[in-house]
Design the sequence.
């Protein structure tokens, strides 16, 4: 198929960007979206002779595993994060989802918290900062406990696994009308809050992760649910309700500092 | 920002917003019930009696303070949250978002502001008249709410605007009702369906109920 591509080009974070139109022909319906971009880049390299304008340089886009597990490859394609399909990442998107003669508009994730590094590549480090604020279990050294010594219900282990399938691609932020990271944070809080090992620090974790999220410039959730619709791992918005529950519980019932009045020494 | 309120976390703000909203939702039902007395055809006796009760009963007076507090809290937090949301995406997308979303949720600030404008007009027409801050229409006493209502609703332009604004309020409530439960963490397979149904039913009943009244006065009175 022959396609017209409108791609956001921006040389670096502090330079102005613009859309550039490219024509690309003979694309197989069986190739993936990223392979199509590879072909475009190859064409740009072959066509260039000598120093060229940055719009004639290969298009920068993030990718790593190309099988939907690393979460690097987020692109906003024709008004939808990860393009016109559900439950997949951009690298899993196939060109058969488009028609011959289509115009495809490709944009980077747009959020104050995700500065553009170049073209379609954004810095999703803000998500890592949220994890650093508490998205872990502090493991102290010692012997390996027996696998069956901590009983976990099937229900909770399933829910925790579902939440843990979040790959941190940032599509929830990209699709949210408010650029909110609530689905991401809720998945990371839930996967630990549901398990006995995570429960111990749950009250502090939820508070510090939400605090970090707020400070990084993400918006507030307005229950629009674009996040759930676009999540490649189909993480449920019920996790957001759990995050709210956990947070309210921690704020209302938990004493962050144990004072004498609270029974501390 | 030294202001503690502005330092509240996003979730705390939303929780207060939801609680205030739920309180307003209950208030609207009470208001609607009293307004529906207008349709009884008893010359406004029951309506006037209820209006008198609502403006003199000391318990209701206390609730009135909470009601104003609720409105102010709901509006201020709503504006604060929206400003932060707008700032969170300084550069927008070229292609408008095509993700499947809860439609009215994206326009809550606008439906909210329209409802607020209506609220201001409404206060001028009734509440401030009662307080003596605004002159009642000629020949009508400042506590004669029945007369004021009939006068207003016999004006076709006012009634039409009223109907449109209440439809917009209905849209606002439709999302608000369900969203409040999610914000408070009340999301459960067992009752999600019920909440969804109740939210839709509530918004239709409240908007529809208020709308019947001007229609009655315009065409059947
Ligand atoms: S490249 Fe790893 S998820 Fe797409």
Sequence:
């Amino acid at each position: 198929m022959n396609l017209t591509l409108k791609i956001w080009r921006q040389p670096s974070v502090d330079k102005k960007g613009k859309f550039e139109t490219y024509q690309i022909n003979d694309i197989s319906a069986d190739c993936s979206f990223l392979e199509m971009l590879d072909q475009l880049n190859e064409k740009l390299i072959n066509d260039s002779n000598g120093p060229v304008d940055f719009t004639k340089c290969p298009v920068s886009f993030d990718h790593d595993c190309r099988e939907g597990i690393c979460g690097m490859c987020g692109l906003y394609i024709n008004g939808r994060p990860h393009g016109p399909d559900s439950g997949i990442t951009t690298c899993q998107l196939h060109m058969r989802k488009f028609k011959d003669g289509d115009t495809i508009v490709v944009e980077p994730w747009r959020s104050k918290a995700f500065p553009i590094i170049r073209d379609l590549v954004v810095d999703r480090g803000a998500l890592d900062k949220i994890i650093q604020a508490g998205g872990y279990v502090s493991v102290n050294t010692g012997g390996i406990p027996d696998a069956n010594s901590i009983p976990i219900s099937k229900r909770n282990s399933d829910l925790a696994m579902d939440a843990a399938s979040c790959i941190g691609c940032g599509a929830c932020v990209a699709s949210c009308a408010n650029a909110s990271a609530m689905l991401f944070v809720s998945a990371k809080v839930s996967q630990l809050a549901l398990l006995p090992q995570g429960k111990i620090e749950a009250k502090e974790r939820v508070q510090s992760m939400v605090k970090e999220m707020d400070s990084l410039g993400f918006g507030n959730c307005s229950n629009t649910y674009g996040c759930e619709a676009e999540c490649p791992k189909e993480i449920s918005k019920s996790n957001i309700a759990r995050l709210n529950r956990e947070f309210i519980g921690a704020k209302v019932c938990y004493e962050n500092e144990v004072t004498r009045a609270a029974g501390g020494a | 920002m030294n202001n503690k309120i502005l330092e509240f976390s996003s979730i705390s703000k939303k929780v207060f917003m939801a609680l205030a909203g739920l309180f307003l939702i209950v208030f609207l039902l009470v208001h609607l019930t009293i307004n529906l007395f207008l349709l009884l055809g008893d010359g406004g006796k029951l309506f006037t009696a209820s209006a008198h009760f609502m403006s003199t009963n000391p318990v209701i007076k206390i609730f009135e303070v909470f009601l104003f507090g609720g409105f102010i809290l709901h509006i201020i937090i709503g504006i604060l949250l929206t400003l932060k949301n707008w700032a969170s995406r300084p550069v927008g997308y070229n292609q408008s978002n095509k993700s499947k979303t809860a439609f009215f949720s994206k326009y809550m600030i606008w439906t909210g502001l329209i409802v607020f404008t209506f609220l201001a007009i409404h206060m001028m027409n009734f509440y401030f008249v009662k307080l003596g801050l605004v002159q009642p229409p000629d020949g009508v006493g400042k506590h004669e709410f029945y007369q004021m209502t009939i006068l207003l609703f016999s004006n076709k332009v006012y009634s039409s605007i009223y109907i449109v604004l209440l439809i917009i309020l209905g849209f606002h409530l439709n999302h608000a009702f369900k969203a409040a439960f999610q914000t408070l963490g009340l999301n459960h397979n067992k009752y999600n369906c019920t909440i969804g149904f109740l939210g839709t039913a509530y918004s239709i009943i409240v908007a529809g109920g208020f709308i019947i009244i001007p229609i009655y006065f315009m065409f059947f009175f």
Remarks:
- The longest strand of chain A covers residues 3-9.
